[in-house]
Amino acid sequence: MMKDQSLWIRKVSLSPPSLKDNTADVDRLVHALKTELETRTIEIDLPLARRIPHLLRIFEYEVACILFRGSESWHLLSVKSPSDPRITAGLAVDLGTTRVVLRLLNLLNGSVLGETAFDNPQIEIGPDILARIHFSDMDKGLEKLNALILGGLNEHIQRLCAESGLEPGDIYALSLAGNTTMTHLFMGLDPHWIIREPYIPVMNRMGLYLAEDLGIHIHPRARAIIFPNVGSYFGGDLMAGILYSGLNRREETAILVDVGTNAEVVVGNKNWMIACAGAAGPALEGGMSRMGMMAGPGVIDRVEIDPANLGFRFHTINDQRPRGICGSGVIDLAAQLFQKGMMDIRGRLVPARCGNRLVEENDMRHLVVVSAEDSATGKDLRVSQADLDSLIRSKAAMYSILETITMAVGLNFNDLTTFYVAGTFGSFINPASAITIGMIPDLPLERYESIGNSSLEGATMILTGKGGLQEMDEIRNGITYMELNVNQDFMNRFSAAKFLPHTDPFRFPSVLKPLGT
Amino acid sequence: MMKDQSLWIRKVSLSPPSLKDNTADVDRLVHALKTELETRTIEIDLPLARRIPHLLRIFEYEVACILFRGSESWHLLSVKSPSDPRITAGLAVDLGTTRVVLRLLNLLNGSVLGETAFDNPQIEIGPDILARIHFSDMDKGLEKLNALILGGLNEHIQRLCAESGLEPGDIYALSLAGNTTMTHLFMGLDPHWIIREPYIPVMNRMGLYLAEDLGIHIHPRARAIIFPNVGSYFGGDLMAGILYSGLNRREETAILVDVGTNAEVVVGNKNWMIACAGAAGPALEGGMSRMGMMAGPGVIDRVEIDPANLGFRFHTINDQRPRGICGSGVIDLAAQLFQKGMMDIRGRLVPARCGNRLVEENDMRHLVVVSAEDSATGKDLRVSQADLDSLIRSKAAMYSILETITMAVGLNFNDLTTFYVAGTFGSFINPASAITIGMIPDLPLERYESIGNSSLEGATMILTGKGGLQEMDEIRNGITYMELNVNQDFMNRFSAAKFLPHTDPFRFPSVLKPLGT
Prior knowledge:
The structure is a homodimer of 517-residue chains.
Chain A: E1 7-13, H1 25-37, E2 42-44, H2 46-58, E3 62-69, E4 74-80, E5 89-95, E6 99-106, E7 112-119, H3 129-136, H4 141-163, E8 171-178, H5 180-187, E9 207-210, H6 211-214, E10 223-226, H7 236-245, E11 254-259, E12 262-268, E13 273-279, H8 282-286, E14 299-305, E15 312-316, E16 324-325, H9 327-339, H10 351-354, E17 358-361, E18 364-370, E19 381-384, H11 385-408, E20 418-422, H12 423-428, H13 431-436, E21 448-452, H14 454-464, H15 469-478, E22 479-481, H16 488-496, H17 509-516
Parallel strand pairs in A: 2-4, 5-8, 8-10, 11-20, 13-22, 14-16, 20-21
Antiparallel strand pairs in A: 1-3, 3-4, 5-6, 6-7, 9-10, 11-12, 12-13, 14-15, 17-18, 18-19
């Protein structure tokens, strides 16, 4: 295991007490551990201290100790037989607004013992952050939201352990990364002020807790690391993402983007980091309501239009009959429509090119993406002009956010050596298509790197020794947060970006070229 | 308040959050406190963190904070209105085997708000340490002993608070000093091995706890400082005594003696300290069972014998009719008997000098100290030859302990610039009498200093800012403990000291002189 891990397992061999060395039992163990770990302070909870004399005698002064390394001191969590076969486990949690992912880890070697995901049970209260915050203002509202997520976590922890042949008591450390509101609701902190000017959380630096004090039933002395927030709109999930991407450890400047309901962006390197967040996602994840939005079986995630006959080709998830289209599919579709002249630079469907795919309904143009006979639903899968307008606004917002933050530190897009795209969005998006519609800058494709569920990966890293609490603090302290809501430059840039690919097409040479040929 | 106190009250004035400064509520408060206290770490329990946004708004960002200063970090305990009239109190506890003393303190100025004492409720299980340790080996024995002392403490804390117009929730810090076994029973630590070779406690370095976790019901976030032990026979009460005496801060070498059932001794100065403990007290506190032993109303604490007519004069506590004799009275009596030739150098009563005060009973000589008609009990108050033999052994043990520890560091008694005598024994003993029987060395009387209940005073100091946690650790780490049970020198010295004042009378020139005149 590496030097900066959170949980340590140490075997120590003590000389039994004698008249010549009558050091007290607990002091004897602590002294050996201090020497072994080269530390000044080791804290032991009273319930464990009470059992140590018996444990030392049962195990004949040869014991395996499980320790948690906090920022200021070490905590002894358990004393076992050195031959105890039970696994010392940790749990990484990605606490999403919609989906919660749990990963069970063997902390001795970092291997994954199991993984599970479940819908955030708070969805029954409200699908999004805003609805839940409003609910939390009601009598016992916060308590109910808190109980829902704790209930869900405890239930699935138990299941996951059972599946892996473990018990919850085998989990000695938990790390949790979520957005600011989810973290507040998990910790029972009132999110009321997050959505009210001047938009402040109860706290950003979360730190270290007894899991039991948070209401999580694993080992009674297990510690919980909660990833800190940078602000109301830049949460611990992004902090975990930064940790995982390694952006904070690199000499060269990179950018990290996570797109959900909000787009959250960090630009920086080992010396500095700047972050911002803005509403950019509705069209990508939630706006196409009629067609369905979430990735899932039968959802279109790739679209191609044959330049010869303008025929549509799809890829659906699990290769099932199409029943909807997800964010990456919509971006593909829009890029193809634009490239094939079926959509103009203002994002308007072009009747002359769309032909009989265009239908009029409620005084609005719709494009039939999949006809009723080909779809899984028995109905046309359509995209309305309004849907496409919404997409244009989203992509304009995204590009403006990226431009504003990059310019704010005096850089051009070309200075960004790597462009990390996090989240499920990042896993499915086709960067070429996103460039075609001017959503992301026209950089060489190899600079784009999808890093998957970086929130879960960051939470895993802090447990398995590839990232430490100290690094987490350094990231948190090193980030400058830029408020976009009060930024006039951002508004100007947003207007200019509402064209395909942009008012200034020379920013997208790779998009211009194919049109020119 | 001084710089090294445990509990701090700080008023802070925060600028309210704004769009230009949207630091989170808790972080805002922590930042201000860190600046104010020049510290790196401030820890806040979750239940308090949850309430901070509301408290800051109610008090309009002007608050008074109560903080506890631990060894590694600060702990925020409470956030109040700066005009809150409630007193911030602390509680010092002297946890004796027989008697428990509580002192309630105003932590803003160190003043005493109230004091109370009660018999240790564990007496119902056994009067002494040994009986209680044996009881703790039985099923649920430790739990019962623990519950008894916690029950007693909580009940008397409530009473003391009520008498002082406070509530237990006003107490934010507790410090407790007791011998090793009492501390173990209070903390629920198994004392089993304390009395079994090689005589080791569960732990010596007690440290810092939530009072609530120890079962003490005061403020839910109140911290408890438990004085550490040096070993099984040198407990936290002595540590507190050292802190109070200031022996550890002085350039000159001094000695501190506490006599209860054991005699506990420390010799040292600011550079080094050596400690030992030995059985020395039975005759002083418990041996005179027939006459009663504890100081109390009607108990003889001073004795004088008229050299002209050998008539006895007494002083009794509260000037009531005599009903017993306490340790200091016995020492006075023995010194007077020896000086007036009524007892020889081997401690034998001399019939020729004792006259009709001498009675024979069960083949043993007894001295009538108070006749039936003068006593409060209507019976003679007598001292038997066996009682006196026991006293001689006690005084020999005491002198040998003092001699062994002093010689062990290459000093003579004369190098000891101050001789602190702690405890109730110290408060009542007449040093001249103790010197006369050779119990303590023949030093100028002004070197003897009685320091009263130094355990309670030390516990007070650590709360009121005249001694810090760090100093406590330094004392603990600076002490070398010397085992007397395995010391042959001690046994030789003990034999030589079983004469009055000593086999070598030239060690006691001040005792020789009056005899010589």
